[in-house]
Amino acid sequence: MSMAEKIIILGSGGHGKVCKELAEACGYEVLGFVGNNKPVGTKILDKKIISTVEDVEKLKSETNNIVIAIGANTVREKRAQQARDAGFEMPSLIHPSCVFSPSADVGIGTVIMGGTVVNAEAYIGDFCIINTGATVDHDCRIGDYCHISPGANIAGEVTIRDYTWVGVGAAVRELITIGKNVMIGGSAFVACDIEDNVTAIGVPAKVTGK
Fold first, then answer.
1. Which residues are catalytic?
2. What is the largest CA-CA distance in the chain?
3. Sheet strands side by side (includes 47-51)
4. What's the whole-number average pLDDT of the chain?
5. DSSP per-residue string spanning 162-208
6. In what order do the strands lie in the sheet with 111-112?
7. Contact (CB, 8 A) for 109 and 125
8. Considering Cα of 188, then 184, then 179, then 118, what sign does the dihedral take?
9. Closest Cα to residue 100, out of 154, 137, 150?
């Protein structure tokens, strides 16, 4: 970008702070935060909350770009739909320190944090979070609205379906399929396929409930 494009951070919690610094690392000028959990005018890092979520459309005169900085997958989907309905564009942001294969691809609105690796012909869907230090190996398919937590390692040719959350430091062996809306516990090791709508924890990971 010859002149810094402007962008808004929708989300005023801890993940919003990380996304703010990610956007700046990607060359954007951050105008401020949008959120409902603190009053408008509250300072976060060196920026302020400039709008509630309900009034975000009024900021379109400033920029069309917005980042959905919400950690919870289903809430992130709801906010993304609100932003889409308001006519915002939601670029994916990839930290400059990410090792992102030239043959990999990513959908819209996804954030890929510092220290990550996305290897050959991997695909990451829309509005995902690939968090700090996570790795996604060759030929993986990550669905929409997924969260791969800090330090998680996804081996080659793994499929992870929509809305699934892989916990901090978890590992998934090669050729595994993890279903939709699954929670994989922190530090778990996934050695077999996991069905939809369950939680799996432990080493090896076992389903504990729906």
1. 138
2. 52
3. 43-44, 47-51, 29-34, 6-10, 66-68
4. 96
5. TT-EEPTT-EE-TT-EE-TT-EEPTT-EE-S-B-SS-EEETTTTEEE
6. 93-94, 111-112, 129-130, 147-148, 165-166, 183-184, 199-201, 206-209
7. no
8. negative
9. 137
The total number of residues shown for the chain amounts to 210
Residue type, 15: H
Buried b / exposed e over 1-19, threshold 16 CB at 10 Å, is: eeeebbbbbbbbbebbbbb
Q: What is the pLDDT of residues 50-89, one digit of tens each?
A: 999 999 999 999 999 999 999 999 999 999 999 999 999 9
Confidence check: pLDDT of 1 > 50: no
Q: What is the pLDDT of residues 4-47, one digit of tens each?
A: 799 999 999 999 999 999 999 999 999 999 999 999 999 999 99
CATH numbers and ranges of domains, the chain = 6-91 (3.40.50.20), 92-202 (2.160.10.10)
Amino acid, single-letter form, for residue 5: E
